[in-house]
Amino acid sequence: MQSKKSEINTKFSIGEFKIRKAYVYRVNAKMTEPFSISLGTQYDFDGIFVELIGDSESGYGECSTIPEITGEFPGAAVDTATMILGSINEKKYESLEEFSESITKIIYGSSAVKNAIEMAAHDLYAKCCGIHASKLLGGSMEPKETSLTITLGSVNDAIKELAQIQKKKPKDIKMKVGLDAELDIKRIRAVSDRLKGERFYVDANQGYSLQDAIKVGKVLNDVGAAFFEQPMERHELSKMAYLRREAGIPIMLDESISGPRDVIEAILHDSADYVNVKLTKSGGVRQALKTLFTAQAYGIKAMVGCMIESKLGIAASLAVALSAKNVVFYDLDGFQFIKEQPFDSGIEYIKGMNHLIDGKGFACKKLF
Which end of the chain has the lower number of beta carbons within 10 A, N or C? Predict the structure, then answer.
């Protein structure tokens, strides 16, 4: 594992707690295997971390970039984080909410960077209060199941990955699809025939045309899949609505959902049964919660998902998930693809369940 550190001269306060300076780290780590989806393949972990230094504690936040989803590259993310942290020098914020809203307005986009800074603020604030961040958000420490992921590949690859995954005793299994509908149909049938009672769904990451999505959707309906995640391009909400009616399979929107307004648009188009909310897409802990609460107000159930992230990012995501009543699916296996963990503790996977580690903040220990 390699890391590069940049020191940021910034001083600001949130409520009664003062931040004396900040660091931005770029960390490269090996992965257990390449992670392939319809948008591309990730071969190593290249993450950005923010550290906020208080009087007696440090808070950490994570930025996991996927250019096709968040529009951010790691190198540019370092520059953006440096700019944002420098721009808030000498500022005083009355609350985490005021801080979060201020960060949101400094620059358009850059949701992954904003997530890292906002996550670090919540980690530090909860540590200073002497409580776990989940409790700070109004959530619990209850263990929750997570799906484990079969990446893109051949039919035989899918069968082999399934066998390895089943050794971990998951309750949910997710399979990546989206490049070749006919091949994906064969993969879906091969996996569904070998399930041992696990809940099953697929994620196309926007990969299909409407015609192919209908073909795959009907097969998913036949095999009893829980839902079909992001079958088409993020803005094709009208086509997604047509797919729901034609294929009869519930639709989970992911890349289509970055904030509360996206939830409302999905509802107006009648295009979603569920929404997948991620801290990285949302721009932070509080922004993700606002998206979840908007969905809850309209009676839409949700998933909290992740990118390839360390235990820090996954612990923060589960803390958010445990703070919203309408979250019924959890896709939080991203840290299991990282061979060299940047953080220890925080979260532990045991027989299909993610367990938050008790402690202050997100209860993670920096290893780089």
Answer: N
The Cα 35–Cα 234 span in angstroms is 21
pLDDT greater than 90 at residue 153: yes
> Do 213 and 314 fall into the same domain?
yes
Looking at the fold, whether 240 and 331 belong to one and the same domain comes out as: yes
Domain that holds residue 344: 136-366
Strands (E) in the chain, as ranges, are 2-8, 12-14, 17-19, 21-37, 40-53, 58-63, 92-93, 144-145, 147-150, 172-176, 199-203, 228-229, 251-253, 274-277, 301-304, 327-330, 343-345, 347-350, 353-356, 364-366
pLDDT-derived band at 68, boundaries 50, 70, 90: confident
The model carries a pTM of: 0.96
Q: Are residues 147 and 125 in the same domain?
A: no
Quick one: 110 and 213 in the same domain? no
Q: How many domains does the chain have?
A: 2
Same structural domain for residues 147 and 111?
Answer: no
8 Å CB contact between 276 and 301? no
**Confidence (pLDDT) at 18:** 97
The yes-or-no verdict on residue 65 having pLDDT over 90 is no
Instruction: Decide which of 130, 146, 162 is a domain's last residue.
Output: 130
DSSP characters over 52-86: EE-SS-EEEEEE---HHHH---HHHHHHHHHHHHH
> pLDDT tens digit string along 261-297?
999 999 999 999 999 999 999 999 999 999 999 999 9
pLDDT above 90: residue 67: no
Beta strands 228-229 and 199-203, pairing class: parallel
> Do 164 and 280 sit in the same domain of this protein?
yes
The last residue of one of the domains, among 86, 114, 130, is 130
Give yes or no: residues 154 and 199 share one domain: yes
pLDDT at position 312 is 98
Mean pLDDT of 345-353: 97
Considering only the C-alpha atoms of the chain, give the largest distance between any 2 of them, rounded to a whole number of Å.
Answer: 60
pLDDT single digits (tens) 296-311: 999 999 999 999 999 9
In this structure, what token pair is assigned to residue 66?
Answer: 């996927």
Q: Which residues contact 63 (CB under 8 A, 6 or more apart)?
A: 47, 48, 49, 50, 72, 77, 81, 112, 113, 115, 116, 280
At 60, which amino acid appears?
Y
